[in-house]
Amino acid sequence: MRIAIVGGGILGTAHADEAIRRGHDVVQLEREPEARGATVRNFGLVWVSGRAEHELEAALRSRELWADLAARVPGVGFRAAGSMTLLRTPEEVAVAEQAAARPDAQARGFAMLDPDQVLAVNPALRGKFLAGLHCTRDGAVESRVALPAIRRHLEASGRYTFHSSTEAREVRSDEHGVHIRDDHGRTFDADLAIVCPGATLGGLARDLAGELPLRRVRLQMMQTAPLGEALTTAIADGDSLRYYPGFAGTALDALRTAQPQAPTAETHRMQLLCVQRLHGGLTIGDTHEYDEPFDFDVDEEPYRHLTGVTEELLGRRLPPIVKRWAGVYSQCRDTGELVHRGRPADNVWVVAGPGGRGMTLGPALAEQTADQLGL
Questions:
Q1: What is the pLDDT of residues 244-253, one digit of tens each?
Q2: pTM for the full predicted model
Q3: Could you list the residue range(s) of the whole structural domain that residue 236 is in?
Q4: Same domain, 193 and 227
Q5: What is the pLDDT of residue 131?
Q6: % of the chain residues with pLDDT over 70
Q7: I need a surface site. Which of 28, 198, 267, 328 has the fewest CB within 10 A?
């Protein structure tokens, strides 16, 4: 088949890779010179540990697919490094212990470690904490370089073409197939179109599908200069337990009652996630903002909070902060859905709204779409 994919982010690119692997021809359109949305404004984490029960199978499958992709495309920078959630209070320890005692704990690679055991796994963690929840199933990719690397691999197939700085203005379907008109006056003909609009829910996405059942979420993050030592796992703080549905339970209910978040963390709906990039710097975040219109500037107070928490867990000063940014992603309003898939016209699909799980679930979501469409 001739498949046209609109959107150059992780979801669109994962669908392109899946289609090429199944023997189809793909043309992919991206309105920017390079994807600039949530795909590159993230941690690059493949985050299995906190996924809800209904997400776990897809997250584990996606991790397998990332490992397979890395074997084909080493440039994606996939590392099966795992994560360490560092627990600073007895209430946080109780939440982690409850999660580590569940039947799916082995599938998630959970193990409770004391501080000495944490240090043995990740010698950079020399700070203050009572215990660590180790998850061996988590991983990371290099989000800013993965997509160009995947595209170069796809181009070598001879069945893939990428058009940057190309905005799809119209998608129509008739008995001859699907026809996409771009902002340069060109028309691309295909048998099937998959539109992956990311967080851009107006314009073409609204013209095709109306108001999508999605909401947008804004976050703030930052990047340090090289740490000067290896951070052998990603790290998270106890506040992350509040934001991942895999930790829901009586212990989390007790935590929420007994241990309010710090005022800044509560105001900005914060957790600490931190991962080391291949160049040695740390990507650190994040915040959650749900009420639009979003601010166009970034707030400094969350960065001070994140710096303080990270330094407490590392037991050392952070290197200088060299970059700060905000990003926006789209999320299904129905928390039971992994992603929204709609068919607004014959042979035209809109796939959007994986939430903050795009890098984690992208390859598995593309595989699911291909299976659903019989590709």
A1: 999 999 999 9
A2: 0.96
A3: 83-136+214-332
A4: no
A5: 98
A6: 100
A7: 267
